[in-house]
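Posting this for the archive.
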Amino acid sequence: MTGQRSAVDRDRSLADGDDPTPPPTAATAFLGSPDGNAAYADAIDRARDVLLESFATAEGPYAGTDHGTLRDRLADLQVVPDDGSSIEDALETVADDVLADSVRVHDPGCVAHLHCPPTVPALAAELLLSGTNQSMDSFDQAPAASVLEERVVDACCDLFDYPTGADGVFTGGGTESNFLGLLLARDWYCERRFDRDVQTEGLGPEAASDLRLLCSDAAHFTAEQAAHHLGLGENAVVEVQTDGDRRIDLEALDSTLERLEADGRHPFAIVATAGTTNFGSIDPLAALADRAADRDLWLHVDAAYGGACAVSDRLRPKLEGIDRADSIAVDFHKLFYQPISCGAFLLRDGDRYRHLERNAAYLNPERDDAAGVPNLVSKSTRTTRRFDALKPFVTFNALGRTGVADCVEYVCELADAVADEIRADPALELCCDPELSAVVFRYRPGDESGPGSSTTAAVDRVNRAIRDELLADGEVILARTEVDGTAALKLTLLNPKTTLSDLRGVLEAVVDRGEALETDREVIDSA
């Protein structure tokens, strides 16, 4: 192989007592030496240029290329060639074959998912944490990073008015945070109710068959996913109907709890949602905290979306009662404008981490615990973790809490404004008043009875076709969902550079496409 010594040559050199010679690629492939540092600077400059050129030349939120075409084109790429060429060639390939067909989250027409444009300070932090490559499992791998993560977690606990003794850890996002909360809830409950240490003894027969957790029927699917991963099964999740505001119905919750207890089941946790995926609805957190306290249940709040309200003096009252939750999931890669991935799990009583802790002599020996060494592996379901806490730290220090709050408040105000536009358009229907920055609506096709009287089947076909065609044309990326069993569209507004004028253009595109589709019965009938 070009430029490399054979394994036989290396073995002979070592047998003769010679110092092994580093491979020639090492000089410029790694940081730490003048040559490597210079190569890094050149590579970062080139990558930056490629990215900015992509932003400057792109039109719309997506090129519209379908998945089959992408698979065919990328199938020709060499992933692990025998011999490399240059970083310039590799980045040119990325520019042509990856960036050109990537979703542009900074574009005003990208309004589908909880997928934010990241702040510039956070991108700068991403460069630093990737370059230093700290692993957050033990102090000796990430000294200052471990202590700074503790500081950032403490600040997050303060943000949600948690008391002294609260703790937490950074996670990959809401899925991991929700799982961690329900893992601790299950083990805490089994210890109290059955005097059983699940970590060492496993689930007893009562826990395996009779444990139940409750959430609204609008809660994120990760409640069911966590129940599966925890050995309880998805049937352990009891969904409670929502009220007219798409929040968990308290009367239905009370009757459900009474029924479960009468049947000999063991409710152990309530999962509240502060910002549902579809509507941004926020469950009545204070009332749920009362019910959890009355029955000695764990209250976990999935605030992956709505948790950002905590930075805003105006929006903060929406989270009233969250300080009483036993645990909270927060996503920084949504309304906190951080690059993926960046989340946090917060625990009101840090002592409850005892249900998760374990020690390994090579990583976090017990003598480190006694000395107060911050080996954060004991707080996480992961071992190796990135130094993601650096991103919000740099962002908050660059923009300030009020700077981030301005962005959060703006997109929520924008949601209210575009909802008014939808109400005023007879071709559109608003499905629910926005609570945060999600706006669910649909196009209302007409039929032989006149505008606004279309059948459910027609509504489904037209709205699905509108979304698919706008995506295929790369004009707008809308979210799709169902409301009461009927197809709907959704604007998920996270970009503080998006304007009402931009969104008027989106609505016009929806209406124009809907009207065009209604004239093409073949398209509608096959949608």
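The longest strand covers residues 266-273. The chain has two domains: 135-387, 397-525.
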